[in-house]
Amino acid sequence: MLNIKKMNLPDFIDPWLDRFYEPLEIDLLLILADKPIEKKQIVTLLKKNRTLKDYNNFDLFLERAFQRGVIKRLDDQCIEPEDFHTRYDFWALFEGWKDLPLEIKDRLNHWELSHYIESHTQSAEDLKKGEKRDPDKIYPEYILLDEVKALFKKIPRFYLWPCNCRAMIGKCGKSRFTCIRFSNNRGIGWEISREKALDIVKDANKKGLMQSAELGLDIHGNITGALCNCCSDCCFPHQLSEKLNVQKYWPLSRYLAQGPNQDCIKCGKCVKRCPFRIISQTKDIKGKKLLVPVIDDDQCRGCGVCATGCPEGAIKMKQIKKSVFETAYHHTGKDN
Question: Which of 20, 85, 128, 202 has its CB surrounded by the most CB atoms within 10 Å?
């Protein structure tokens, strides 16, 4: 129905387009199929086709189509169809699965994950080769819970968004409302205070989620990106790392867990909390007493979830790499 190359629609979704686009949106996309068009021209063409009935609310219709990821605005005030990857992202985040069959849902997730991997493969492999990180590009990196406050001091605005990975993949039962973005794409996130953002992160860590910051610097040296609270089940960056064998580089490891030290009470909480199951605990020769847990240094990614879950503080984190936020410009505007 919508054979528009620039939209990158997967072939299998054609019978289900009415779940993603309303009738007038489809008419609009067909008009925009060949080239970007200004709003006045769009109105004229829709009138000619006799598909536009409510002229008074046309601006509201366009704004809604923009917010839903149906269209995008260009610098010259023209409008063109939005890539379906963007439409699918907003749809999964805010509109739900409706009555899509499970098979189609799984195919969409595989299609989206493949796109993510293809888009970031070169960056991940470059980091693994030891090439210098480009600060202008956004990369995922682990940051510790006690670093989040320092990071947030450099951010002027905070917006709560659902986690797109969990909204799509849905393999775990963790909350979806855990992504703290530093800008508000299309104006549809919820602006929250710095204190509320910190509370969300602390609660997510308490429940075993890792803090992965997707950070870059703009032309003024200000931090851009988001703070994600990730699981290992749904997270796209973690699935990429397993697929490409770049576990220490995507997200970028900046710490190594040390210990446990002499304060360890052998409770095994770190074993249960480790998202990657690289902490083991065995019993003594007689099989009666638990031994001190052992951390596999070669596999540790430095997420710090084991350390924050240790009741005795017996696990320390050793820093091995700096983050871009540690040297970034400190925002001096008023806190929200």
Answer: 20
